[in-house]
Design goal:
Residues 101-269 form the Ribosome recycling factor domain. With 273 residues, this protein is of the alpha+beta class. Among the domains are: 87-109 and 194-272, Topoisomerase I, Chain A, domain 4 (Orthogonal Bundle), CATH 1.10.132; 116-189, 2-Layer Sandwich (Gyrase A, domain 2). The protein has helices at 3-38, 53-67, 73-79, 88-106, 116-120, 136-139, 160-168, 195-232, 238-271, and strands spanning 123-124, 134-135, 140-145, 149-154, 177-178, 185-189. The strands form two sheets. It has a four-stranded antiparallel sheet with strand order 3-4-6-5. A hairpin with a 6-residue loop joins strand 5 (177-178) and strand 6. The protein starts with a helix and ends with a helix.
Length: 273
C-alpha cells in the first residue's frame, strides 16, 4: 500500500517530461512548415531543419522558379552570343593556327641556314638522375657566325657536357666541337643541305601545314555548329544565318590560303639552298 503513491508520483514525472519534450518537437514542426510556406533560409545553427523533406522539396521548386524568372533569362542568353555575324571564334582560331605554323617553320632549316631558335629551344638535362630539363637558351648564348657556323657560349663549365649531349641527340644532325681557345665555347658547324635533308625538312613543313589546316577546319566546324543551333532554336533569322555562313566560308578560305602560302614560301626557300 505504500508503493502506490511512489508509483503514481513516478508516473507523473514521466508524463511531465514527455509534455516538456513534445512542445519543442511541435514547435520545430511548426517552424519547418513555416519555412516551407515562406521559402525562408534555414538560420544558422538550425541543424534540426536540414532533414525536413518539405524544405528539400521547396528548395527544388525555388531552383526551378529561379531559372524561369525574368531576371535569370538574360544571364542564360549572355552565355551564347545571339549575333550570327559574330565570327570572333573563327578569326581567333585561324590566327592561332597561322601563328603556330610560322613558329614551327621558323625552327626549320630554310635556305641552307639554321635558325638559332632551333638550338636555343632544345631541352638540356643537367643531371642524369633528375627528370628536370632546362632550355638551352637559358644556359648559354647561341650566336650565328657566317651562316655556316653557330657559336654556343656556355655560362658554366659543368654545362658543357649536358649541352653537347642535347645537341647531338636532337634531330638537327649537328655535332658541337669544343673551342681550342675558350673552354666555355662550343662551335657547331652547319653542314650544307643534302637532297635527303631537304626532303626531310619539306616533310616536316608539310606536316606542320596539315596541322594548321586541320585547326582552321575545326574552328570553322565549331562556328558552323553554333549557327545551325541558332537557326534551329530560332535565335536568329534564316537570312542572317545564311549570310553569316557565307562570311564564315570566306574567312575559312582566306585562312586556308594563308596556310598554303606559308608552306609554299618555306618550300621554295628550301629548294634554293
Amino acid at each position: 500500500m505504500q508503493r502506490i503513491p511512489v508509483l503514481s508520483s513516478h508516473i507523473q514525472r514521466l508524463s511531465s517530461s514527455f509534455t516538456n519534450v513534445s512542445a519543442p518537437v511541435n514547435l520545430q514542426r511548426g517552424r519547418c512548415w513555416l519555412l516551407q510556406e515562406r521559402s525562408l533560409e534555414v538560420p544558422n545553427g538550425g541543424m534540426a531543419f536540414s532533414t525536413c523533406p518539405l524544405l528539400f522539396k521547396k528548395k527544388d521548386k525555388t531552383k526551378s522558379s529561379s531559372t524561369s524568372s525574368p531576371d535569370a533569362r538574360p544571364l542564360k542568353a549572355a552565355v551564347v552570343s545571339d549575333d550570327p555575324y559574330d565570327l570572333a571564334q573563327l578569326h581567333h582560331g585561324i590566327a592561332a593556327a597561322v601563328c603556330r605554323l610560322k613558329d614551327e617553320l621558323s625552327k626549320l632549316r630554310l635556305g641552307g641556314r639554321l635558325n638559332t631558335d632551333a638550338i636555343e629551344n632544345l631541352r638540356v638535362q643537367l643531371s642524369k638522375g633528375s627528370k628536370e630539363t632546362l632550355k638551352l637558351g637559358d644556359l648559354a648564348q647561341v650566336v650565328p657566325k657566317g651562316g655556316r657556323m653557330v657559336i654556343v657560349l656556355v655560362s658554366e663549365e659543368d654545362h658543357i657536357k649536358p649541352i653537347t649531349s642535347a645537341v647531338v641527340s636532337s634531330d638537327l644532325s649537328l655535332t658541337p666541337q669544343p673551342d681550342m681557345h675558350n673552354s666555355l665555347q662550343l662551335n657547331i658547324p652547319i653542314p650544307p643541305p643534302t637532297k635527303e635533308s631537304r626532303d626531310q625538312t619539306v616533310s616536316v613543313a608539310k606536316a606542320a601545314m596539315e596541322r594548321a589546316t586541320a585547326a582552321v577546319r575545326d574552328s570553322r566546324s565549331s562556328v558552323h555548329k553554333r549557327l545551325q543551333d541558332m537557326q534551329k532554336k530560332k535565335i536568329a533569322r534564316p537570312d542572317d544565318v545564311r549570310k553569316a555562313q557565307e562570311q564564315m566560308e570566306k574567312a575559312t578560305e582566306n585562312g586556308q590560303r594563308e596556310v598554303r602560302d606559308l608552306f609554299e614560301a618555306a618550300k621554295k626557300a628550301m629548294e634554293r639552298a
